[in-house]
């Protein structure tokens, strides 16, 4: 059932701090510091709690909404609420820079490891020499000399420094992955929307959705709430509640990301749809597994037999008083349904 | 009531990461490594507990092999436990069941491990545990197994899962150790 998904995942390279050689513990530390402790992946829209611990926005929102008792920080267990979440753009920037830089740094670290292994026990090598914002294209080649720009103090390749300063420290057009997002960030700071249509969509998306007490809403009100955001109103009330809850979560988590990384409303809707499909697929799974039924089949059979004989007796008792409706003889199917219900609980 | 945001894709990813971490590095102090039947990276034989999914098609069921800690009646044994992960892992903890069951005050007669780190703050079967030692999504397979290893060495008699065994442990330690051994010997395989 899951095997397809599993294969896709296996094909993907799952990265992990232990990719870095043991001799570079600081690189391992750096890599794990850029990861959310809940999903163990790189931070996606990181937020900080009041205690200072950070998580992906979606991760911590899921934890808070699913915990039956008081919501707590998963790391230090300080009480928290959803309203205390604060976006952490500093971490987001680090992740943005580290992700594309990682393969290069990794290759350097591996290279260094081989070199050290070839030579006899050498002094500990320098770590973190190549600074992340310069993920030079073809890896393996030694880093080009970089210099610090005297104006914006960003690291720039030596041969590009003049052009860089001529352009008012706008990122140079060497096609760096980070330069694009930086440009976007600048334009965001300067209030020059890059692409008007999208920016507008984001701008009116600026408001976070408040928490809703679903229990006090009437069906009609709940439906209106869904329609307000253009959500489907299929399914029953529980489905509506779940859908609206998930939508609120996705929506607010999206706002925790920095503006250029945000999704459009359509993107969030798509994500919601995916979630619903997954949820449905899970519900359709049989709640009782075959092996359980098989191993306990004799007990089930006994129970059915016992129930039948009991039913027969009640029928006999009831039979003389013709007025009462004839009790239904429980068929085998009925009983199994009851059993499996118990299993589900 | 509250909709658990079950997202098996997240769970799967996190499990894969944890598995990778266990296989590639193991814990820093080298207390255990991991592997699967499929990939044949088992570290049994040497004094290394290991854990990993039982089959490639189901990443939500793992098998862990745990060495009996030193200076305990479990010393020298390798014990197999089945780990069953929920689809909303790591929001909910996984379940751990020794198969064959171990004789231990904190292990139910059917082999299920009763340890506070595997209970969510909401449910408290024994009403003893503090919230501070419960499951939280930042815990991991590695941390839980380390806790279980230390639990094997030092049973928590305040909340016994197996009352008989707990009594035995308290009143007649020698007999407890003997029974642990004779039970363990029953399952000596390959």
UniProtKB/TrEMBL annotation, chain A:
Its recorded name reads: Postreplication repair E3 ubiquitin-protein ligase RAD18
- The UniProt record lists the RING-type domain at 36-77
Gene Ontology process terms (BP): DNA damage tolerance; DNA repair; protein monoubiquitination
Q: Which catalysed reactions does the entry list for this protein? A: S-ubiquitinyl-[E2 ubiquitin-conjugating enzyme]-L-cysteine + [acceptor protein]-L-lysine = [E2 ubiquitin-conjugating enzyme]-L-cysteine + N(6)-ubiquitinyl-[acceptor protein]-L-lysine
Q: What class of enzyme is it?
A: transferase
Which residue ranges does the record annotate as region Disordered?
A: 113-142, 277-296, 316-345
Please provide the record's keywords in A-Z order.
DNA damage, DNA repair, DNA-binding, Metal-binding, Nucleus, Transferase, Ubl conjugation pathway, Zinc, Zinc-finger
Q: List the Pfam families.
A: zf-C3HC4
Q: Which GO terms describe its molecular function?
A: single-stranded DNA binding; ubiquitin protein ligase activity; zinc ion binding
Q: In which pathway does it act?
A: Protein modification; protein ubiquitination
E.C. designation(s):
2.3.2.27
Q: What family classification does the UniProt entry report for this protein?
A: Belongs to the RAD18 family.
Which SUPFAM superfamilies does the entry mention? Answer: RING/U-box
Its Gene Ontology cellular component terms are: nucleus; Rad6-Rad18 complex
Compartments it resides in: Nucleus
Automatic annotation (TrEMBL), chain B:
Please provide, alphabetically and separated by semicolons, the GO molecular function terms listed in this UniProt record. ATP binding; transferase activity
Domain of life (superkingdom): Eukaryota
Q: Which Pfam families match?
A: UQ_con (PF00179)
Return the InterPro entries for the record.
Ub_conjugating_enzyme, UBC, UBQ-conjugating_AS, UBQ-conjugating_enzyme/RWD
UniProt entry tagged with the keyword Nucleus: no
Q: Which keywords are on file for this protein?
A: ATP-binding, Nucleotide-binding, Transferase, Ubl conjugation pathway
What Gene3D superfamilies does its record include? Ubiquitin Conjugating Enzyme
Annotated ranges, domain UBC core? 10-189
The record's family statement is: Belongs to the ubiquitin-conjugating enzyme family.
Stated name of the protein: Ubiquitin-conjugating enzyme/RWD-like protein
Q: Which organism is it from?
A: Mycena pura
């Amino acid at each position: 059932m899951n095997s397809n998904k599993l294969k896709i995942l296996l094909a993907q390279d799952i990265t992990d701090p232990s990719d870095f050689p043991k001799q570079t513990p600081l690189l391992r530390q750096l890599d794990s510091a850029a990861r959310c402790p809940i999903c163990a992946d790189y931070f996606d829209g990181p937020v900080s709690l009041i205690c200072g611990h950070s998580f992906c926005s979606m991760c911590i929102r899921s934890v808070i909404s699913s915990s039956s008792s008081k919501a707590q920080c998963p790391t230090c267990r300080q009480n928290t609420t959803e309203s205390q979440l604060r976006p952490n753009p500093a971490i987001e920037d680090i992740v943005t820079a580290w992700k594309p830089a990682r393969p290069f740094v990794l290759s350097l670290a591996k290279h260094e490891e081989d070199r050290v292994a070839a030579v006899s026990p050498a002094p500990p090598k320098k770590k973190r020499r190549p600074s992340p914002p310069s993920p030079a294209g073809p890896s393996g080649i030694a880093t080009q000399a970089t210099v610090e720009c005297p104006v914006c103090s960003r690291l720039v390749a030596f041969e590009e420094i003049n052009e860089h300063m001529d352009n008012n420290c706008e990122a140079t057009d060497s096609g760096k992955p980070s330069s694009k997002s930086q440009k976007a960030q600048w334009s965001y700071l300067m209030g020059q929307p890059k692409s008007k249509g999208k920016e507008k969509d984001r701008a009116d998306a600026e408001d976070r959705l408040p928490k809703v007490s679903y229990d006090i809403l009437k069906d009609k009100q709940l439906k209106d709430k869904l329609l307000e955001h253009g959500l489907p109103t299929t399914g029953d009330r529980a489905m509506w509640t779940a859908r609206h809850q998930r939508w609120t979560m996705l929506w607010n988590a999206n706002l925790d990301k920095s503006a250029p990384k945000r999704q459009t409303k359509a993107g969030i809707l798509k994500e919601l749809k995916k979630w619903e499909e997954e949820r449905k697929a899970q519900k359709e799974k049989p709640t009782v597994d075959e092996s359980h039924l098989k191993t306990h089949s004799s007990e089930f059979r006994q129970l059915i037999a016992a129930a039948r004989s009991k039913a027969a007796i009640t029928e006999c008792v009831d039979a003389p008083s013709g007025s009462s409706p004839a009790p239904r003889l429980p068929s085998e199917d009925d009983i199994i349904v009851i059993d499996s219900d118990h299993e589900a609980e | 009531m509250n909709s658990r945001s079950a997202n098996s894709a997240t769970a799967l990813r996190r499990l894969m990461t944890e598995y990778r971490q266990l296989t590639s590095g193991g814990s820093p102090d080298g207390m255990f490594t991991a592997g699967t039947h499929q990939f044949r990276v088992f570290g049994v034989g040497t004094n290394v507990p290991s854990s990993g999914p039982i089959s490639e098609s189901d990443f939500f069921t793992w098998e862990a092999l745990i060495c009996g800690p030193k200076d305990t009646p479990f010393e020298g044994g390798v014990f197999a436990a089945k780990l069953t992960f929920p689809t909303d892992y790591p929001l909910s903890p996984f379940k751990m069941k020794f198969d064959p069951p171990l004789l231990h005050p904190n292990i139910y007669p059917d082999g299920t491990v009763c340890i506070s780190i595997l209970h969510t703050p909401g449910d408290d079967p024994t009403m003893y545990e503090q919230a501070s030692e419960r499951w939280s999504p930042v815990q991991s397979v590695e941390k839980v197994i380390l806790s279980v290893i230390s639990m094997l060495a030092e049973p928590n008699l305040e909340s016994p899962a197996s009352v008989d065994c707990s009594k035995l442990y308290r009143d007649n330690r020698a007999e407890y150790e003997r029974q642990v051994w004779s039970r363990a010997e029953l399952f000596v395989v390959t």
